[in-house]
Structures are given as C-alpha cells and as structure tokens.
Amino acid sequence: MYTLYYLPNACSLATLTVLLELDEPVTLINKIKVDDFSTINPVGNVPVLIDEGKTLKEGAAIMLYLLRSKANQLFPQDENDQQKAIQDIMFANATMHPAYSRLFFISQNMSEGPEKDKALNAAANAINTLWESIEAQLESREYLGGESVSAADIMLAVYSRWDEYFPVEIKLGSRTTAMLNSVIERPTFKQALLMETENDN
Predict the structure, then answer these.
(1) Which CATH architecture has domain 79-184?
(2) Residue 27 forms beta bridges with which residues?
(3) Which of 87, 77, 69 is nearest to 21 (CA)?
(4) Which fold has domain 2-72+187-200?
(5) Residue ranges of the domains in the chain?
(6) pLDDT > 90? residue 139
(7) Beta carbons of 119 and 108 less than 8 angstroms apart
(8) 54: helix, coil or strand?
(9) What pLDDT sits at residue 200?
(10) Which residues have C-beta within 8 Å of that of residue 164, sequence separation ≥ 6?
(11) Measuring CA to CA, which residue among 19, 63, 79 is closest to residue 155?
(12) What percentage of the chain has pLDDT greater than the value 70?
C-alpha cells in the first residue's frame, strides 16, 4: 500500500486522484500533523509518496513513477504519445504550477495597496496566457492527450480550483472549462476530495 503525504487542496490532490484512477490503495497523512516533516522531505513540499520503503518526492517525478508502474488509461503506450504526455505533465508541474505559486507568494507577502494589486494582475495575466495555450491545444481534442483524460488534465484541474483564492480574473476558454469540469466531475476526483476532507476530521 502507498502512503501519501499531502495538504488539502494542494497539488498532492492530483497524485491522490491518479492513485485512485489506478485503483491503488493509499494511506493519507496530512503533513501539518507530522511533528518534523523535514525529516521526510527537507524542502517541506508535498506530495511525498512512500512505496515499500522508498521515499518519492517531486510531483512530476511521482506522477511518472505511478504512470509507469502498470498499464493504464492515463499514460499512452505509443512512444510518441508518451513523449507528448510527459511534455504535458512537465508543463503543468514546471510552468503552470509556478505561475500560480507567484500569486500565492504575492498574496501572502506583499502589503495591501496599488503595488500589490499591480503584481497580482501581472501574475494573473501570465496565467491567462498559459490557459490560452491550453485552449488552443483543445481545439481538435477533448483532453490534452486526445480522447481520454490524462494525468496533466488532472493536474491542471487541481490548479484551476485555486482561482477562488485570489481577487483577480483568471480567464478560461470554453474548451478548457469543459475539459476541467469533466475532470472535476470524475468519480476519482470527487473521491479524492472526500478522502482529504474525511482524513482531516
């Protein structure tokens, strides 16, 4: 059984959803309930996944580890399609996620006033440009990977839920909205949210 260290509504939600998509049993541990989480991950980030004594860190690396653990619908078998899937995962993890991280940083570290508003709007505009690139990719496909949901779609759906935390306008195209809603409505995504909630109570 896997053990997943997480924070509610953080990017670890995507890892949990993928574990459920793969029908893998998992034990959840909220990192804030760990006395010294730095002994598990010195940089303090989630997700952290424990698999038979192996400690796995970094969201994209964990995602690829899980997707390659057994055949599944989230990760294609064709080599060219696999490369596209890896590219999409890296875009989500290394491009879109840091863009949202800038919003969190500005919100938590700048004093209220015009300069903070300007910084938030600039960060939001950068995110909107990234979502526009997703919208363009979805012109000829339902999901980033084609006709079935991919791990990157799940990751992006998690990030999209962070929009509500900020007083800025994040613009999503109609195709992007449809894709994200489809992911969020999946039973595994709903179950992941419920598991996080129940584990915190």
Answers:
(1) Up-down Bundle (1.20)
(2) 3
(3) 69
(4) Glutaredoxin (3.40.30)
(5) 2-72+187-200, 79-184
(6) yes
(7) no
(8) strand
(9) 79
(10) none
(11) 63
(12) 100
